Each structure stands twice: as C-alpha cells, then as structure tokens.
Fold:
Amino acid sequence: MLAAATLLLGQQPIARITLHFDDTSLQNVMGQIEQQSGLSFSYHSRLIDEDERVTIHMDRLPLDEALDIIFSGRRIAFEVVEKQIVLKRARRVNIQVEASVFRDSISLIPVKFTVSGFVKDAGTGEVLIGATITIPEGAEGTITNNYGFYSLTLKQDVKELLCSYVGYRDRIIPLLSPENRTVHFTLEKEPEPIGEVTVYSNEEENLIQTTRSSEERIHPESIRKMPALFGEKDVIKSLAAIPGIKFFGDGSTIFFVRGGGRDQNMITIDEAPVYNPTHLLGYFSAIVPDAVKDVTIYKGDFPANYGGRLSSLIDVRTKDGNMLKFGLDGSIGLLSSKLSLEGPIWKDHISFFASGRRSHITRPVQNWNKNINDLHFSDLHLKLNYHINSKNRLFFSIYRGEDNFEAQGRNDIATGINWINSTTTLRWNHLFSDRLFSNLTLLGSRYDYRLFMNLEKNDYWNSRIDNLNLKYDFTYYLVPGYTLRYGFLSSAHFHDPGNVYLGGAEWDPGYDLSYKNTHEFTFYVSNQIIVNSRLSIRAGIRATVWQNIGPATEYRVVKTTANGIERDSIDVNEFSKGEIYHQTLSLDPRISLVYQPGVQDIFKLSYSRTSQFQYLITNSISPFTSLEVWLPAGPNVLPQYAHQFTIGYTRRSSIPGLSLNTEVYYKRMNNLIDYRDHAHMLMNPLVEEELLFGEGTAYGVETILKKEHGTLTGWVSYTFSRAIYHVDEINGGDPYPAYADRPNDFSLYLSWELRPRLILSGNFIYMTGGPISTPTGFYYYEDHQVPIYAKRNNDRLPDYHRLDVALNWRLNKPGARYQHELIFSVYNLYNRINPVVMNFNKTLDENGNLVVPVDFYTNPKLYASRYYLYGIVPSVSYHFNF
Amino acid sequence: MKLLRTYGKSRFSGILLYVYMATLLLFSCEDPVIWDLEYEELDLIVVEGKITNEAKEHEVRLTKPLYEMNGTPEPVTGAQVEINDGAEIHLLAEDPERPGIYRTDSLFAAVPDQYYQLRIGYESKRITAVTGMVEVTPFQHMNVFQVQSDPVLYEGNISDSDQPAIVRLELDWSHVEGYEDLPDSENHAVIYHFTLNGVDVNEIFRPQQEHVRFPPGTIVHREKESVNALYGEFLRGVLSETDWRGGMFDVLPGNARTNLAGDAIGFFTASDVIRDTVVIE
Structure:
C-alpha cells in the first residue's frame, strides 16, 4: 500500500522543521509543526487519530518533506492554502494493480524532460543503492546505481514519481511542471524491522527496466537476523541462501558458483578486490556486517562493467556515514566484538564511518595452552564521504583485515602465521549533466601472507599480490528507454608467488622464483534498450588486453633429443624491465532479454562470456584457506573463458510478497585448471608444469519460492545442478565430477515474528555430499600402507544437512533512541556430523585417539575415519546501537 | 639437471606444535567409521626395489595390490627380473623361501654417478625403471626429549638430516629392567624418518602422530639411506598419502609418482647407506 501526498506551497517561504519525539501523540507533533512553520492544520476529524503514538526524528527538513514523512503510510495528502496546511484523503496507488496498464511503445512518445537525483535515507543521509523510482501509473522506471543516483527521462504528461526501497516507506513526489530538474528522494525507514528474508527483492522490482538474470542482493539487516556459527554474522556465508551458490561445508568460507572453481569468484569491497577475505583460516569472512550497506551478487548475465572472474562477482558496498547525526553501533559476541561510529564532520557535506572488529580469544586460548603467544583477528573499515555540491561527490575508504597467530614451537622457537588484506579506494562522482553520470575510481589493494619459521630471527615465507587500478565509468541516460554505459579500467598487478626471507632479506634458493608483473586494460560498453513496455534488451561487450611485463624469468619444460634419447630440459627465458613479453586480448560479449507479458510474469534470457586472468594455484582439499599462491595468466597459463546461457522465469503471486523464481543455466568453461598428482605448489619455479588444463560443463535448474511479507517470511529453494570437468590427463580422459558437483541442494529459511520484539528464525540446508577421491586399492612401501587411486573424485562424502535456529529478542521499546537486542542461536541443532574429509591412514593409539602410525615394528591396523568440524554449537551475542 | 636447491625442512617443523594446538582450538573432531571403499582391480605389479652401496645380494619385491585395508599382499611369482648397470646384467632369482622376493645372483655394490636399469618380465608385462645413486651425508645428533608427564621416558622423531634421506631406526629396550617380560611389540619399535626437499603445506600442517616412548638404555640401530631427486619425489607422494594425510591442509589425493614404466607402481632406487648403533642415556 502506498501513501500519496501532494503539495502546493505557492509563494509561501519554505519552513524547515526539526522534530525529536519518542512515543508522543500525533497531535503534539502537529502542534510543533504549526509552531515552527507558522501555519495551521485544517482537516476532517475522522481523517487522523490525533492520539496515535508516534516516534519521529528529523533535523531541518523542508516542510514538504517533513509532512511527507509524517503522513506517508497514512494515505493522507496535503496542500498549503493561505496560512493553512489542508489535509485530505489521498488517492490509493497500488503498483501491482495499476501497473498492469501497459502502453504499446514508450519510445514513440516525445521526450519532454529529465528528472535526476539521489535517493537517501532520511535519518542518515546515506544514499540508497537499488532504490526503485517509477511512475506510479505506469511501468517506466529505473533504479539507483551504486552511488544512489538515478536519471529518468519522462514524457510530458508525467505528474509524479514514486520512490521505494525495501525496509523503507514509499514516497511520492509531485512534478509540478514538465522541465528538467533535480529531485532528491529522502526515504524514512519502516519504524520496526520485520522478519524479512535474506534474498532481497521487493514487489516493485518486477520492472522490465531493472530486472536481470542471475542477480541477487542481500540486505545487511537480514544477515543480522540469520542464525550464525558462534553468533558471528557473516556476509559471505549468508550467500549460502542463494540458489546456485554452494559452500564447501561447515566452517568454511570457500564457495562455488554454478560449477565454477573457488577462485572464480571475485569479492570486492568498495570496488577493490580482496583475495582472501577470511579470518581464522577461513572460519569467518573478513567483512564486518555492520559496515555493509549493500551486497550484490552476479552469478551470470554479468554487467559489462564487471569482469575478471568466470563465475561470480560479489560487490560489497560499505556505509557512507551519517550526514545528519552521530551514531554508535556495536555487538559483543563469544569470539569477537564490533563497534561502529558514524556521523557528520560538516553537516550535510562531510560524513565519516568507522567500524572495527577484534577477536577476544587470545586470553582464553592462552589459559588453555601457554605456548600460544597470540591468536587474534581484526578488521577496520574507514570511510569519508564529501558531498561537495549537487554535481560532485568524493568517497575515500580504507579496509584492513588482519590475522595473527604466534606460538612457541618445537625447540622453543616462536613461529606463526600472519595475513593482511588491505584496500584503499578514492572515488569521485561527477554529474556532467542530469543525464550523464560518471565515477572515477583510484584504488589500491594488497594481500600479504607470511608464514614465520622463526619470529625472532624474522625468517618467513611470503606471498603477496598488489593491485593499482584506475577506473572511469560513465552512465548516459540518452533518451527514454535507452541507457548507455561505458568506461575503461587500467590496472597494474604485482604477484610474488612465494619467496623465503631470512632475517627479513630475501633468500636465494638458487633459481629465480620470479615476481610477476601484469597490466590490464579494459574497455566496455553496454546498451540498455527498452523496446516497449514488454521487452527490454541489454547488450554490451567488454574488451580486455592482458600484458605480462618484465623483469621476469619464465621457465618451460621442453622435450629435447640427444643421442637418440628423448629427455626433459628446461627452457629459461629472461625478460628485461618494462618488456611486454606476452599479450592476450579477450572480447567478452554479453546480451540479455527480458520479456514481461503481464505484471505477474517475467521471462529472462541471457548469454555472457567471461574471462579470467588470475588464478589461485592450490591443490588443497581443505575447507580452510592455507598457503595460497595467486598467479597471473601468461605464456604458460592460458586465460580461462566461460560461456553461460540462462533462461529464467519469475512469477509474482497476487498475494503480496509471494514470488517464484526459476532459472536454468548452462555454462561451458575453457582452460580450467586441475593438478597433477601431488603437484609442487610452493617454491617451485616450474609450478606451471604441475597444472593440467581442461574443459568444464555446468548446468542446472534453480528454483526459489519466497514469501517476503507478513509475520512469517522466508523461502524454500531447490537446485538441481551438475558440474563435470574433462582433462585429458585425468581419469584417462573420462569426464569426472568437479568438487562443486552436488546435484541436489535444498534450503529452507523461515523467520517468524512471534511478537513485535521477538523473532524466531530457522535455517535448514541439505546438499548432496561433495565428490572425493577414495582409495581403490593399497600397496606396501617401506612398511607404509599406500593407497592407490584409480580415478579422481570416484566417491562422495555423506549428504550434508543441518538445522540452525536463532531467537532475536529486541530489548528496547519500538522507536527508542537506544536500541539493543540479544541474539541466541544454535548452529547444527540436531548435532549432525558432516565430515569435510575422509582419511584412510590412521590408527588408534592407547587412548583411543586417531593418529598417524609411527611404530612399524608390527603392521599398524589402519581405519577409515571422518574429519568434521562441529556438532551442536549454541551461542549468544548482544547488539546495540544509538 | 638439478634445479632445486635444498631448503631444510627443519626450519618449518617448528610449526607442527602450533598446528596441533590450532587444530584442537578450532573444534575439529575425527572418529573411525565403516566406509565401503569401491575397490577396482587393476592389472598392476607393485615393485619395491632397492640396491645399495653395500656388496650384497640385493632384493626386489614384487606383489599385487591389496583390495582390502590391512590385507596381506599376494606375491608375484614366476617373474623374470634383471638389473643392468651398464657393464653387466645381474639376474635376480625368486627366493624359494619367500615368494615374491627376487635376489641378485651375485654380490655387487652400487656406486654414485652410475645408472641402473631394472627390467621385469611377467606374463605379457614389460616393466622398466632407471635410477642413480647420490651420496649419503653423515648421521646427525639424535634429538630425543623427556616426556613431561613421565620423565623416565623419552620420545621424539629422534633423527634428522640436512639432505634428503630415509633414516630407519630399530629401537630395542627389551633388556632394560622392568621391560624384559613384555611382548616384543611393547619393547621394540621401528620408526622411519624422512627428510625431503621442498616446501609442502600438508607436511608443515601434518596430523597428530603416534607417540613412541622408550626408557633410558634403549638401543637404537640406525640406518640412513640417501634419496635421489626422483626417489624423493616418489617418497613425497607416499608421505602425502600416509604420514602427512589427515591434517588441516590436505592436498588432492593421488598416486605417488613412480620411475617405473609399464603396468607397475612402487619404485626402484639406488641408495648410499650408512649404519650405526647408539644407546639412549
């Protein structure tokens, strides 16, 4: 239901209204407005309930915006006549009903005027990403971009615009005359959070202009409500809710999208790539949920401005900071505590947002074992947001996440592991006109991993990736129904594949374990054409030139023949500084069609080609992130390509908030990487010789039924999918299932608002067990019983399933300034054992523990064993903000 | 060509304790289960062949793969086996007392910088392998330490090496007072210690090992064998599937890389060997 309001201020001076009331009567609020505006209200006594209790906070809002906020949702319109604010019953506008009136062709109607602007949160001034702006009576509309900006070119007869965003009250703004103008929307949050589902979508989203295949969004508020391990809310793990995304298993942040590899997913924080966004070896992701404003997931039909990975892009946007007032938000959990502070530095112009998280497990662990010197992780997000003027805006953001373990090892030598992700982003939004939006981004990022052999001597193994990117994006809202997006990216990448440093100085291993320098130049263009009210087309292309630059040493094993005997020899090629010794061009076309025959049905069709030039080189099967090396494409490693086709269908029920979405996809991947048996991954200049290259095919059907309104909300989803790889050197060239091949995937999430302040939620997940390689025979060598593997991934782990529950108990009264809640959660309620690895090499010691045998005086008896991470894990955490 | 230079793994071994603790910290568990392995009969011969610098009758063991855990291997009998050192061909005859064990018909000693070729004929199979020998380095000091909970006892991986090598330790404390009447398996132990080149995550983060504890007075017979590059590669695969399997950072399972051509698994190597005996004081 929408509220409508109209305003005719005439020549009245525009008053600004400041209100700060908690749980007061509407009559009292109106009295204050009369006092501040010098106007008096006029209305029929049955129109409003003067005794209704309301909570409202606003600072210096124009009178029309203030009235709009107060009366939106009450279906009350207003106009100012003489010295009176006249209230009257508003016309009911329901998009679901009225939008069914389609016109034959939008493009035939002459262009008259353009409306553009930003959509913001009324309470914080934060811009809202993905807010929908529509004409209430029609199907035309758009959504705000990643910077909260929209531009809509309208026909002469359009009189008002509606803006909506999930979790916020809808708002209508009248357009007094058909002329180019800037219209900023400020939306007020719904007074009480409802138990909304994680997968974001609102019922207004079924616009032909805004719908695209394989795109999902997650609202951070929803992440907070979901049950979580140890109560640690996790942005990355919440992706498990999305059909087509499969997690490795318990406790891991490793995930696979539509049959792709784990390194085929790019996670960006404010556009900067983060290569290992994990803590505690991958138990938790490194992104603080409290700092997140928006998460968008692309798993197919990638926009042309995104690239660099084959399977998915996770675009995380952090909060800009409150432009109007200071706020504090925090939580205390079993493993870590979080604190966020935001506020204006210069009201309405400069805001900041700072959020930190630090674990507090060091002392308990030290009490348990004195040999541990340190064990902690931390995150820091900082952001500055400078609203220079209506055409220019600057953002500066920093992220730094660190893990550190230190322990006294054997011989009392202090050892440890440390890894740091850091990103810095500077962005400049500039409006060249009300139709041409631009964003210039300069960013740097670093992933630095160190394994310390001796902390005191500063002996360590180090792997590092540095990126420096310059990106310029343009969005040109040319004419109604036609939007042109274009831009370029220039990147420099530096890879240290892993070198040893003794006493802080690089150790010479006797060969050149070469650093890798690469440049990437990308240009993209994308067109969105609204053919008519039923059909829209997106078509674009992304062109990337990838260059390998010296200084570098490249090795290659070549076959040589001497005296009639063929043997391997190593071809060493050295390249000087600045020399471009390898170059690749990739052209990635993308096209999608959306057909909407009626307001309730949407059909989607898309094709996209994606390419990837950087790879995680690891043959690990562990759920944890370990010593991992990233390498760029080059003369010995070809770029990976994927072609993906999707067909989708969405059905919106006449019951509000109920929808069914189904997508069928087929993905073909080229130059996929697999590994030789027992490949040498570290300190190996010939590491590329350990790689095997092949093809992959993934296909599946994903279905999700969502209920987004009411006291009981949630979804049920089912995915059937396959991911089959083919590498000539593996399994005799026969196809084999990839680790992501888990044909059946079912999930159910329910959130039940028991009382206004009590939400019970539950989450059930079922997946076919992941493929594994198990022995098909054994033999003895030096008394060791050695397995024989006839085929890779010949077996499967037991099916994975678990049930989590959480109870969110809000302790404050609705609308209170200080808000706080307790969250009780139980992970794996029925204590299901979900193994992540099977072993066949352990024996039982005298205490009944499974250990690797050491004494071979008699043949030790070996057992099959399962390695798992959790049984039932209860937790409690406390969250507050004010 | 030897491209890789040794980086002593001992620098990394200090991590092991940490890993053990971290593993416990992270709440992981492991328990035995019954698992129906899908055995697939392969027409392969398992070769365990080693010649050394010692002038003796050298042995090559031929068996068939096992198709059950903890099974007893079936010997391959009736094979033709020979070793060619470039100048002479040494025929190996099957030991009538020990089926599947083939012994050279004469005494000879392997020497460094010499290639040796193993040839096996069995039914229609033709299996070959070539190996060479590198010199072994001297023993290092045995590194044993007292057990905290029972200072009377010692434990540890009690030998290390600066170069790739296998150290085989036979421990005997059957003569020590208080231990004389125990079954042989409780007053004897055989321990292998492997030193290899390179850096492997699964070695660094290897799983918890069995503790072997012994009293002062234990006699230790040590045998150290050199390991050439290809043999080291094979042993690395064997250890990845045995001693190093089941830790936090396991690697993709796979077969150990062999130097055997033909339908065979295992390895044929030449090793420089030294021996000594020490007593734990």
Observations:
- The helical segments of chain B are 10-13, 15-25, 184-187, 201-204, 229-241.
